[in-house]
Amino acid sequence: MFTTYEQAVDWIHARLRLGIKPGLSRMEWMLEKLDHPERHIKTIHIGGTNGKGSTVTFLRSVLQSAGYQIGTFTSPYFEQFNERISINGKPVKDEEIVEMVNVIKPLADELEQTDLGGPTEFEVITAMSLYYFAKMNPVDVVLYEVGLGGRFDSTNVIHPLLSIITSIGLDHTAILGDTLEQIAFEKAGIIKNGVNVITGVKQPEAINVIEERASNVKAPLHQLGKKFSISQVKALSKGTQFDFSSTFGEFKDLEISMIGEHQASNASLAVMATQLLRNYYAFLIEEEHIRQGLKDAYWPGRFEIVSEEPYIVLDGAHNNEGIQALVDVLKERYSDKKITILFTALADKSVDEMIRRLDEVADRIVFTEFDYPRAATAEMLFSFSSSDNKSLEKNWFDYLKNKIPSIQDDEILVITGSLYFLSEVKSSLITIYKG
Question: What's the CATH superfamily of 5-296?
Answer without folding.
Answer: Mur-like, catalytic domain (3.40.1190.10)
